[in-house]
Write a structure and sequence with these properties.
Blueprint (H helix, E strand, L loop, with lengths): L1 H10 L1 H32 L1 H6 L3 E4 L15 H7 L4 E15 L5 E9 L11 E4 L9 E5 H6 L13 E4 L2 E9 L10 E5 H7 L9 E6 L5 H12 L2 E4 L10 H12 L2 H30 L1 H9 L4 H37 L9 H26 L10
Parallel strand pairs: 3-8, 5-7
Antiparallel strand pairs: 1-9, 1-10, 2-3, 2-6, 2-9, 4-7, 5-8, 6-7
Helix pairs in contact: 1-11, 2-9, 2-11, 2-12, 9-12, 11-12
Length: 386
């Protein structure tokens, strides 16, 4: 029975290819756009990944990491005074302009960390020594900064190279790997006091306080203690999940609620679903109509509607599986190209291909249902009528 179903399916090459093409387009749009959206949301939390502190203490109105409302310098001591805190260090985070050797200006994400403890320092150093940040006018840059700040690609910026941040000298003493920022600028680390010198002066300069819990307490418990004793807002830094007190989760939901990014990507996903459904349903229904006499003959020879329905379901499942596989293969090719170029961001959690497979099979089941309804109304006697 199933072998006969496949012969009928592959025998009509034009409709078979049309079915596969429709499901391929649906799969590619759904998986590719969803993965780029997840990658873009990951970029919004790049500062959290690159700093890596367990707890971020920020001003009470802050709800995402890229939104900076300065704190008072005395807030560091207030956080340190909480019994549940093992250590607390200042952090500066801000967008600054860099002047390179040819006189052009570039935008960077400047991070100022404590020079004594190096809390918030990059963890994946490629070149240089992190301890050299204690020297005057020194910075550590990421690999993206090497590309963006190099005037001549054949002679990229390296250890010992010099550029200017707000007309002050910055000498490179280290190169590290870091996640790319949502703003597009590379990350540059320096000492906290030096970051304040690089930044135009204002009354309050402290962006956040990073902290860690004492032994025997979780980050959530320590964050709650900080909020209770200081009145500041304390976020944990675990990763995207269901906890609204996680800075990653809060940041991503802020972008979902306040930007048009989800609508843009969601519209493309919906278009992929509609296109796949329209092509698959129309083509599969035409396929059933073209083969209705053969199916009617089988029905006249005693094959039940149930078995004929199984044949149509098997045909639709096969087409859906092939179309999904080709779509996922094309998406993988796109992903390799994106990783090679560094953009667009591409992150594919396991739930995306699973959901896409379920959607494609749902489309196929709708198409098969239309064919089953048409077949159920077909009388076997029609086969023998002239």
């Amino acid at each position: 029975m199933f072998g006969l179903a496949l012969k009928m399916l592959f025998g009509d090459a034009s409709k078979y290819l049309m079915l596969v093409a429709g499901l391929f387009i649906a799969t590619f749009l759904i998986v590719q756009q969803s993965s780029v959206f997840c990658g873009l949301m990951t970029w919004t939390t790049a500062t959290l990944k690159n700093v890596g502190a367990p707890i971020f203490v920020v001003e009470e109105q802050v709800s995402q990491i890229n939104e900076t409302i300065p704190l008072r310098d005395t807030d560091v001591a207030r956080v340190r005074s909480v019994d549940a805190v093992r250590w607390a260090m200042p952090l500066y985070s801000g967008i600054q302009r860099v002047r390179v050797s040819d006189g052009s200006f570039k935008t960077i994400q400047l991070l100022g960390i404590d020079a004594a403890s190096f809390a918030g320092a990059p963890t994946r150093m490629i070149k240089g020594n992190l301890a050299d940040l204690r020297l005057p006018n020194t910075v550590v840059i990421d690999t993206l900064a090497v590309q963006r700040l190099s005037v001549d690609p054949k002679h990229p910026i390296d250890i010992g190279s010099v550029f200017e941040i707000n007309d002050l000298e910055a000498r490179v003493v280290g190169i590290c790997e870091a996640m790319r920022s949502f703003t597009g600028g590379p990350f540059v680390w320096t000492a906290y006091e030096r970051a304040l010198q690089y930044t135009p002066a204002s009354r309050k300069m402290l962006s956040a306080v990073i902290a860690a819990p004492i032994d025997g307490m979780t980050a959530e418990q320590t964050a709650a203690a900080i909020e209770k004793q200081t009145g500041l807002k304390a976020f944990v830094n675990h990763g995207f999940g269901e906890n609204p007190k996680d800075f990653n989760t809060s940041t991503i939901w802020w972008y979902v609620r306040n930007t048009g990014i989800p609508i843009s990507f969601g519209t493309t996903v919906i278009v992929g679903f509609i296109v796949g459904t329209a092509i698959a349903c129309q083509t599969f229904y035409a396929f059933v109509l073209d083969n209705i006499k053969h199916l009617g003959a089988l029905k006249a020879m005693g094959m039940s509607n149930f078995r004929l329905s199984l044949m149509l379901l098997f045909q639709s499942f096969t087409v859906g599986l092939i179309g999904f596989g080709i779509g996922l293969l094309a998406t993988s090719g796109f992903a390799f190209g994106a990783m090679e170029n560094g953009q667009p961001p591409f992150v594919m959690p396991w739930v995306i291909p699973v959901a896409a497979f379920a959607v494609t099979q749902f489309i196929c089941m709708i198409a098969a249902l239309l064919g089953i309804l048409r077949l159920s109304l077909y009388e076997p006697a029609m086969v023998f009528r002239a």
